[in-house]
Amino acid sequence: LLALPIVLVFAAILAEADPIFDDIFGQFLDIFKIENLGEYIGRSILIVFVANIVLGVILHAITKNHDDALAGEEDKRWIPPFLGITESGIILGSVNLLFLVFVVIQFQYFFGGQTNIHLDGFTYAEYARRGFAELNIVAIFSLLLFLGLSFFTRREQKGNQGVFSGLGILLFALVTVILVSSFQRLLLYEQAYGFSRLRTYTHIFIFWLGGLLFAVSLLELLRKQRFFALATLAAAVGFVATLNLVNVDAFIVQRNVDLLEQGESLDIAYLASLSEDALPSLEKAYGQADTQAAQESIAGAIACHAALNGEYNYPEYYGDRYRWSSFHFSRSQANSIWQNDLSPQNEGQFSVLNSSVDRNKWDSYIMLNGEKIFCYSYQGD
């Protein structure tokens, strides 16, 4: 009973992430003639959640201990472990079995390549672009499930700790394969549509999540579970620090220009929406462009970026709002690059047209290969 709702939740997320697994899971549910499964799962979770709170309040009122805990007491958990190894083992074992089935399907289809996907009526692109977000959610929920069971499971008897640790390490091994599948899907998505901020954040996040899973497995193996919180904090700080070291906007420009050189189109409006951190990379790419077509696309991105940022003349652009206390290094660098390297060529390569009478910058556009491309457009993920 404890394992069933957990397995169903994970199965529903995995089914959303993978169409072949979705078909197999649906055929399995047809055996039981279950309808409105999603509604049933949602209601069950709500019922269990509310019932757990009510029961907890009642038990706390009945059993509250007013004695002060001993200062030297080793285990100071505010809720003592109440699950036996049998209950936790069934939960972890059931989730592991579900994940194992999913991993087998991944090796049979997704990791198997284009041919196997076509045999089941899906294009490889459709199959690959579906589910990388859901798979990351599965990995996070798996980590939370293990930490929760680790906190609430009694492991005093000899051998219980080994069983629990073994099931947990197996769980993280399977989740690692799921993360690899998620990362490969993301790479294919980026290859098709280019890099964006959200995709870059996810790109980096997967590595740190994988590192956290490895750290938790190692701590469980070494019986150092008390350092779980420290490992989580280190992963969170590392993720944020990596975003700063990578310079996300410059990274996006570099990767999208690489795709341009491979024959893909350049999303000029998206590059124009980035911060001033993008301009040095755009300038470098412009100077290193191998073909005239690539150079013209990058020049269009530079022109639109400059138009949306007022040619980086911020004191004049913002007026009295831009004072010395608002100094920003990236803005200063962008202004320097524009004035010293790009502005003399502005009349030829880096000018934009405008479709409005009042010359609103949001109506700026360029002409590229006879096509009108607006500098601003709504950006998704």
Defining traits:
381 residues, mainly alpha, 3-stranded antiparallel β-sheet, 16 helices, 67% helix
Mean pLDDT: 79
> What is the CA-based Rg, rounded?
27 Å
Beta-strand percentage? Answer: under 5%
List the uncertain runs.
68-74
Strand order, largest beta sheet = 1-2-3
Topology pattern, helix = H, strand = E: HHHHHHHHHHHHHHHHEEE
> What global shape is seen?
elongated
Give a short synopsis of this structure:
This protein is mainly alpha-helical and 381 residues long.
Report what the structure shows.
The protein is 67% helix and 3% strand. The chain has a three-stranded antiparallel β-sheet with strand order 1-2-3, with helices on one face. It is mostly helical and 381 residues long. It starts with a helix and ends in a 7-residue tail after the last strand. The model is unreliable at 68-74 (pLDDT under 50). Strand 2 and strand 3 form a beta hairpin. The chain contains 16 helices and three strands.
Question: Which helices and strands, and how do they pair?
Answer:
Elements: H1 3-17, H2 19-30, H3 37-63, H4 85-110, H5 114-119, H6 124-129, H7 132-152, H8 160-193, H9 197-221, H10 228-246, H11 248-261, H12 268-272, H13 278-288, H14 292-308, H15 314-318, H16 329-342, E1 353-354, E2 364-368, E3 371-374
Antiparallel strand pairs: 1-2, 2-3
